[in-house]
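Quick note —
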Amino acid sequence: MKPTVLISSASFGRLSGDVLELLARAKVKVVHNPFGRTPTEEEMVRLIQGVDGAIVGTEPISARVLERADRLKVIVRRGTGLDNIDLAIARQKGVQVFNTPGTVEDSVAELTMGLILALARQLTVLDKALKNNRWWKLPGIELAGKILGLVGLGRIGQAVAERAKAFKMKVVYYSRTRRFDLEERLGVTFMRLDQLLQESDFVTLHVPLSKETTGLIGERELALMKPAAFLINTARGAVIDEEALYRFLEEGRIAGAALDVFKQEPLRDSRLQKLDNVILTPHVGTYTKEAAQKMDLKAAELVLKVLQP
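Predicted structure written out below.
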């Protein structure tokens, strides 16, 4: 009997048709997400039944979903982070869980730098003004000599550091474990989180979502930042207290922010959407052709390795 692979990630294969051919040649039955969007928990409860492997995105793989997984042997999460998967229940059921590290660092780091540049030169404000026939010049700031504070120095944080150094920025970082091995190679300096927030001109977030990082940047932490500083989040939305951030932006207590991720996605009817000093993008950090091709290929290979050893 052919093993069955569920592809619940709505993005899988969209930018990498070759990987669908790879699965078609393999001796597996493929079940596709029929919704064209991220499935809900209730929909995943139905989809997960009778499948041997699953390639997933951000959809919830909760205890309730896993309880209905009667044949599941492997889950592969496209991209980084496993916060949407109940890992304890997966272990109890003997389900192997993987993600695809090494596939998205360039894409997320490039978006992060793009958002930093857009904030520094007020590009979205100028674009909006000119499209409304307003020839309005606003002063920007140079990145050279500014302090970039990285919260997290994993693969993506490292990739951002490398790019920031090319812009002649001074790079500091905070992580729970100090990375002596990277400090000299990347030319970065360790700081405690409070000090980093106080001294940085730009703060970027590169941490996984966990109990420890949920709400990591709240009212207390925002109050430590300079009034002229900017906050950029391409990690996970729940790392920031969005209500506190709105108040600080609306009151001008920090200069601006750029967010690619949100506590609830898709983002709708948020007060953040009404502010001119925040740039919002719809979770596209990993959404490039190159990253998609690498993620999809690695996900397919991992599923097949478990199901066809």
